[in-house]
Amino acid sequence: CFMATLEAASDNEDAVVVHAWIPENDTWYVHAWVENDEAVLDLTLARQPVDRAEFYELKKIQESKLIRYSRLEFFELSAKLESFGPFDTDYFSQMTVSVEPGDAPQ
Q: Which among 70, 89, 92, 103 could disulfide-bond with 64, CB atoms 3.0 to 4.6 Å apart, if both were Cys?
C-alpha cells in the first residue's frame, strides 16, 4: 500500500498521503492511502476514488490514529528516507499489533 501512494500522489496535486492504524477483527494493521477533502484513492482496493466519509466508516478509521502528509512532505520524506513509509517508525514500529495502538503524535 505504501508504494501505491507514490502513484496516487504523483497524479494528484492536492493529494494528502495518510498512514494509519486500521482495526480488523482482533488486529490493528498499518495502511496507507491518498485523499483530499472529498475522496480517497486507495490503489490496493480500486483504481477509482471513493467517498472519503464512506471509506472512513467502512474501515473504522479513527482520526486520532493517523498521520497526514502533504504531497510535498511525502516526496521529501520518501527521498530522504528512501522509503514510501511508514515514516514515523516509532509510532508505526510494527505493521500489525494485537492491542489498540495509542494516539498518533501531533
A: 103
